[in-house]
Write a structure and sequence with these properties.
The protein contains three helices and seven strands; from the N terminus they run βαββαββαββ. With 149 residues, the protein is an alpha+beta fold. Bound molecules: adenosine-5'-triphosphate and magnesium ion (MG).
Length: 149
């Protein structure tokens, strides 16, 4: 279906500002306004990445900036947080089912499925997800999907 990205992002930002008061959640739409994709699946990917950005950031620096832009025949969604970061040696593990980085941030009620689920969904949608992170500084997740408009 044809998704209006501005409407989609507004809805998500409103929902998560309500869910997480004080969370600084922003988005920027660059040169792209609509996308043919499954809105529910894309929403699940956003949900997992937003929940993670909130959970794995310290009180007072809970923020997430989502930038959406085109690159060749792909659309990119960049999620940048200022959270606790992920050790370099763990980066290859975090997309595995039930994998969680050992830290005091490991919360009850989290099982380590969010990113594995995102990766499977995105593969199903002919997309992908990558991560960059600096321990103590923050993480960037880059989601790519084919740009069908
Ligand atoms: P679930 O998503 O099932 O509730 P979870 O959040 O622990 O549990 P994932 O979303 O798959 O599981 O993430 C796996 C691990 O990667 C997390 O346990 C956490 O250690 C690390 N991680 C994920 N996102 C971030 C982030 N934005 N900043 C720092 N660490 C992260
Ligand atoms: Mg998660």
């Amino acid at each position: 279906e044809k998704v209006n990205l501005k409407d989609f992002c507004e809805k998500i930002v409103n929902r998560y500002q309500l869910k997480y008061p004080g969370f600084d959640l922003q988005y920027e739409l660059k040169d792209v306004s609509t996308l043919h994709t499954d809105q529910v699946l894309l929403g699940s990917v956003f949900q997992n990445l937003i929940d993670n950005a909130y959970k794995y950031s310290e009180e007072g620096s809970k923020s997430l900036k989502i930038t959406i832009f085109k690159q060749k025949k792909q659309i990119m969604f960049k999620f940048v947080d200022k959270g606790i970061g992920i050790p370099r040696s763990e980066l290859i593990n975090i997309f595995k089912k039930f994998y969680r980085v050992k830290s005091q941030y490991n919360q009850q009620g989290s099982v380590g499925l969010g990113l594995a689920f995102c990766k499977e969904l995105l593969n199903f949608m002919d997309g992908d997800i990558q991560v960059k992170s600096t321990l103590g500084k923050g993480s960037t997740f880059l989601v790519t999907l084919p740009y069908v408009h």
